Amino acid sequence: MKIWDAKYECMPREELEQLQLERLQATLNRVYKNVTFYRRIFDELEIAPENMQSLSELVKIPFTSKENLRMNYPYGMFAVPLREVVRVHSSSGTTEKPVVVGYTRNDIKAWTNLVARVMTAAGVTRDDMVQITFSYGLYTGAFGFHYGAEAIGASVIPTGTGNTEKQIMIMQDYRTSALISTPTYAMTLAERMERIGVDPKKLALRVGLFGGEPLSETMREEIELKLGITATDNYGLSEIIGPGVAGECEYRCGMHIFEDAFIPEIVDPLTGEQLSAGSVGELVLTTIKKEAFPMIRYRTGDMTSLVYGTCRCGRTMVRMNKTAGRSDDMLIIRGVNVFPSQIESVLAAIVGTSPYYQIVADRRGANDLLEVYVEAAEGTFFDEMKRQKAFLEMVEKKIRSVIGVSATVKLVAPNTIARHEGKAGSVIDRRKT
Amino acid sequence: MLKIKNVNTYYGKLHALRNVSLHVSAGEIVALIGSNGAGKTTILNTVSAVTPAANGEIHFDGTLISKLSTDTIVRLGVSQVPEGRQIFNPLSVEDNLELGAYLRSDAGEKKKDIMKDKNQVYALFPHLGERRKQIAGTLSGGEQQMLAIGRALMAKPRLLLLDEPAMGLAPLLVQEIFRVIEELRREQGTSILLVEQNARVALKVADRGYVLETGKVILEETAAELLANKDVQRAYLGKDRKEIWER
After folding, report:
1. H helical segments located in chain B
2. pTM as predicted
């Protein structure tokens, strides 16, 4: 399959490390000069950015957290004057202030190129009709894929969100071949097609790229089966650039992080200590090519692990595994780190689809308790007591084998668990109150 | 081809290069941008060991050259065209060129080969070809610059270090010099590390560039990106002013 930017994507490791060092040093010198936040912490810790001699010395620099970004709302983290910023996006902030990110003209170009790499790796070509069903607004998703697709030379259909039947009509009539959506919306499209009698197999649709929420393996299989497409995974976040941080190649062995633009690290979410690449921990990213909004050791909150080594596709860029939950969702139950996403994947594997669920952590005496409430659905034997009991025991056993601690699983009536947009589950930790 | 890692250079107590890392790939033209005293020329002088690095590493084609002497570095294929030309004024054009091949004849290379390269320089700079016997000191500024480049080429470099080739030259001559720089890369695959006060001209021929400030690299980007960078435009390009020859 084609590689969009082989010069960088397949760069020999030694050359890549030299380039990373050059760009890291330049970025550190630049943020020290232009961003008060960084100058202050460097001065406080007596770090002279100009003395940074190797990539491994990055650990001397403190992390940048989402909280730091909020404290500097809206423009405090910008490294260029506003008049040089040609675009502003912002990330979600339902209760607190959002995070505002900016792009110079060069940043937009670099972003475009990065998303073109992701889309090319996913198999999108100039012959594709790309339907983008993300919201064209403050979020980075729609614009990122829009630019990437245009750079490749594909035709973009910027439908935006909603109006599912019209989306399906466009898909049929305009012969959409690539779908950009959230995994949930891909399922919604499939269900609606079924309801209105549209056969997805008769569409020109052949490939999907997803964003907004993690694409679990169960979901991927379901989407591929129901829409008859190749569903590919990619990774990105607004604070870093938007989509275009990493993307999966045809071998599906993790997502290649574009290391000529970002330096990834894996750290222990509690101690902040850097872990070896292979261990699961929180992903920390440093941007080394951005002008307007450089981020030094930004804590993404996403749990993953990294695989180094040249891939069968020819890319030398490190691969990140599918994210295994959010570090801020992590619960410590009797000393064991538990991620809600682990429980979700167990449920999805057993029930078939992702049921709505709620995880409750509580404390009785000195003992941590973990309870999982699952909404009854098809396949949970809601009206057969005996089979239900056996079913729940089976789920409990499976959860225990996956997360390493026992949990009590209870079935509740449909539609009794509060819905959170785009998410199947929620977590309550009563021990904190 | 050229790889510089964490290089520090001092002039006495003055810390002129602070942990500079950069590279030039084979066949690439790389420009160093920055104001006076930023360390651009020092980088060239450090690579050629005229002012050796205090620490750090410089690799040329895989060989560590930061501890080698200037003549060894020239022998390996790195030639410098110094700022202000510094040709041998009392000598003829021809003699100046032959001196550029001094290390080669010293190493026993045939006169015929050196002769051939001399003719190549004349082909590159027809102006010089017409003035072979003229005393170098009586050449015009532009011709002297051509001679300085020609002399560097006589050592058959694979990497050319060019310091301010356009300085003090009339617009037409600037154009001529940069035409030759591009031709060198195209025809002979010569890599070029270029220092030029006139950043716009430099970025027009360069593939990539580094921006220096007080001895530190603060930006590494493609030439196109640097030309579009507002900071660079404001500080080094004189945004709205085009050179006469560019019109």
Report:
1. 40-47, 70-76, 93-100, 102-106, 111-124, 126-129, 141-153, 171-188, 199-205, 223-228, 230-232
2. 0.87
For residues B220 and A23, the answer to whether their CB atoms sit within 8 Å is: yes
| Cβ contact A31:A291 at 8 Å | no
Rounded-to-integer distance, Cα B87 and Cα A71, Å: 60
Alpha carbon A46 to its chain's center: 34
Estimate the crossing angle of helix A36-44 against helix A13-34, to 10 degrees.
100
**Are B103 and B140 part of one and the same domain?**
yes
**Nearest-by-Cβ selection for A22 from B22, B213, B229:** B22
Identity of the residue in B22, B217, B221 whose CB atom sits nearest the CB atom of A29: B217
| Domain boundaries, position B68 | 1-77+158-164+189-247
The phi, psi pair for A260, rounded to 5°, reads: -75, -15
How many residues are recorded in chain B? 247
Please give the Cα distance from B86 to A127 (Å, whole number).
58
B193 with B71, same domain: the answer is yes
Residues of B with CB under 8 A from a CB of A: 3, 5-6, 18-19, 21-23, 210-211, 213, 216-221, 225, 228-231
What's the number of domains chain B is made of?
A: 2
B178 falls within a domain: no
| CB pair distance less than 8 Å for B218 and A291 | no
DSSP A392-413: HHHHHHHHHHHHSS--EEEEE-
- Do the Cβ atoms of A109 and B225 come within 8 Å? yes
The one-letter code for the residue type at B203 is: L
Contact A139, A241 (CB under 8 A): no
Do A26 and B210 make contact, defined as CB atoms within 8 angstroms? yes
The CATH number for A330-432, chosen from 3.40.50.1400, 3.40.1400.10, 3.40.47.40, 3.30.300.30, is: 3.30.300.30
- The per-residue pLDDT for range B211-231, each reduced to its tens digit, is 999 999 999 999 999 999 988
Sequence spans of domains, chain A = 1-327, 330-432
- What's the Cα-to-Cα distance from A153 to each of A128, A134, A135, A291, B185, rounded to whole Å? 8, 20, 22, 26, 31
ipTM of the complex: 0.89
Q: Are the Cβ atoms of A30 and B21 closer than 8 angstroms? A: no
For strands A306-307 and A319-320, give the pairing. Answer: antiparallel
Gyration radius of chain A's alpha carbons: 23
How many C-beta atoms lie closer than 10 Å to residue A349's C-beta?
Answer: 14
For domain A1-327, the CATH class is: alpha beta
| pLDDT tens digit sequence for B155-213 | 999 999 999 998 888 888 899 899 999 999 999 999 999 999 888 889 999 999 999 99
